[in-house]
Amino acid sequence: MRVVCLISGSGSNLQALIDCERHGQLGTATLVGVIANRQDAQGLKRAASAMIPTHVVDHRSYADRLAFDRALIDVIDPLKPDLVVLAGFMRILSDPFVEHYKGRLINIHPSLLPKYKGLDTHQRALASGDKTAGATVHWVTQALDSGEIIRQIEVPILPDDTADSLQARVLAAEHTLYPSVVRDLSLGVISPCDA
Ligand code: GRF
């Protein structure tokens, strides 16, 4: 299963995927490309260290979202992906892009969806007095953070937690969750969906 990963920043989830592939724990999945919308995305260095081809498509070079998304497709499609993995990709994707990759586009979101779509998820979980938080991997559909849930992981919220400490605990859990989903999709343990 050919996997293309889209990032904007640190790429710690990408690193988890790289590490699992290196240790033979990613089923039949192979990372065939990493694309960032920023030249300074740290994850590009992680990919380069793992000898994965990298590409930058800088959103600031395009007149609008549709033009940027078309440029992204022009870079992604030649990589012939079976799965496009959003891992901290901080751009909202247009409807034509989502439609183009329908059923092979997944995202990880740092909350127990359907709670806390969008930003500031950890702060909002703390403010609500929740006892648990977590992360969700879901199929990407046109409505933000609303596609069918594939798998979730839960972590406790501790009495002294700040948004930062909770974020760190959730992120560590994401590093288990995301590779497990990619592996299970590659092995057919999780079925593709119609998104
Ligand atoms: C993660 O918390 C993920 O859930 C969210 O963006 C963050 C990406 O972190 N979508 P990293 O770049 O993988 O370290």
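The pocket of 5-O-phosphono-beta-D-ribofuranosylamine is lined by residues 7, 9-13, 43, 87-88, 108-110, 135, 171, 174 (CB under 6 Å).
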